[in-house]
Each structure stands twice: as C-alpha cells, then as structure tokens.
Amino acid sequence: MKNIVKSTTFLALLACLLWSTAFAGVKIGLEFQSPLQFAGIRFTISGILILLYFGKYRQFINELKANWKFILLLGIIQVFAQYALFYTGLNMVPGSLGAMIIGSSPLFIAIVAHFSFHNDKMNRLKTISILVGVVGIAIITLGRQQVELRGKLELLGIFLLLLNNLVSGYSNVIISKKSQGITPMVLSSTSLLIGGLMLFFVSIPFEGLNLGPFPATYYYSLAWLSFLSAAAITIWYTLLKRPGVKVSFLNVWKFLIPVSGAALSWMFIKDEKTDITSIVGMMVIAVSLILLNYANRKKSTSKLQ
Question: Which residue from 1, 66, 22 is spatially nearest to 264, judged by alpha carbons?
Fold first, then answer.
C-alpha cells in the first residue's frame, strides 16, 4: 500500500512538472499560429505518438470498438471543450487573472468530486488545504502583474475560465468512474486524437488555415508540447484509474504547476528574476500540500483502526 502511495505521488509530481514546462512552449507556438489551430495540431500529434508507442493495434481497435461512446465523450469534453474554453477565455482576460483562475482548478475539481463520490467528500482539513493553495496561487500571480478588469468582455472571459475548471473536474470524475476496462494509453491516445482533430477543424472557419512554413523554434516547441501532453495525460489517466486514488487529493498536486513553471522561468529565461512575493506564494503552496498529505494520512490511519 505504501509503495502504491509513493508511486502515485511520484507520478503525479512528474505529470505536473511536465505540464509546468508547457507555458514557454505555448508562448512560442502562439507567436506563429492561432490558438485553437496550434492546440489542435499539438494534441493530434500527441495522440499519434501514444498510438505508435503502444503498438498493440489489434487491442487498440478492439478497445475502441467496445468503448467508442465513452471515448468520444471524453475526447469532446477533456480535450476539445476544455481547451476551447481555456484558450478563448484566456484571450479575454489579463494574463495574471487568467493564470489565477486556472491555478484554482483543484478547488473546483474537489467540489465536483464532492458531489460525485461518496468517499471523496470535502472535510474541514481538506477544504483548508485547498483554499491555502488557492491563496498561494493568488500571491504568486498578483505579485507579478496587477489585475485590471476593463469591461464585459473580461467578465465573459472569467466565466469561460471558471466553466473550464468545472469541465476539467467533470472529466476527471468520469475517467475515475467509468474508464475501467480501457487501457490508459488507448484512452489518452483516442481522446487526444478526437479532441485535437475537432479543435483543428473548428479553428479553420474562425481562425483561417495557417500551415507555415515556420521557423525551427516553432517546430521545437510543437515537438516538446506534443511529447509532454502524451506523457502527462497518459500518466494522469493511469492515476485516475487506480483503485483508492481520490480525484480531489490527486488534483491538488496541480498547485505545483505554477510553482515549477516560475522556477523554470527563473532558470532558463533571461528577463525572469526571483522575487520575494513569488517565494512567499510558493511557501504558502508548500503549506497547502503538507496539510493535504496530513489529511490523507489521517484518513488512511482511521480506516486501518
């Protein structure tokens, strides 16, 4: 049991570390291509990479035939709807506010899980740990850039990003509940292919078609983003399918994404420098994760007694 907990923690940390590297890659990619089209190409390539690595094509087809309705639903919700809301909403609000709303997604996922599972209810300690994490995200975000709302368009953007958080919570719940019998690689490959292709084709009437040629930096960023999406989403699906892994506890590790992203920016981007506000925010998030792990251990101990 302890080994399973340790491996779950390690894999969750690995997935969040991979996701934290996406910010720079997306920023580079969007210099040359429109948001939905770039995301569509990225996720389609990710799905193909997983399929090629999986290699068991007969098993892939059999699982796809047996579970096509669920796989189609997941592709629409987890990839197409979520990222369409994410990119559209992010373009309507100041970057700092968008980062703060997206950073608070573990809170929304915990709320969705509370109403979806009898054994994943919000309690006092879990609620406090998640709210402390949200405060840490707010400190990091607001310390870097002042938030200014300028009109109704920003309010619509906030609504879309909040809806994105709820969609993310719902998709995590249905994977945990209904994906038994489907190999994680089959699930991640098909959902990424379906969602990626939908994003690409929907982008054409709204954003036009832009297939390059692009400079080498674009292709480097696309290659890395495609790899990290394939790896991180497959890891996440694997963890969500594990018996005993609770959706709310797992998703709190996502508080580490902006922390790791900021640290990587300090190391690799020349203009980025450490600041006391970000360090305080990181310390607050560390407290949140300590509280969460204490709550998790306390609950596991009480079950054994």
Answer: 22
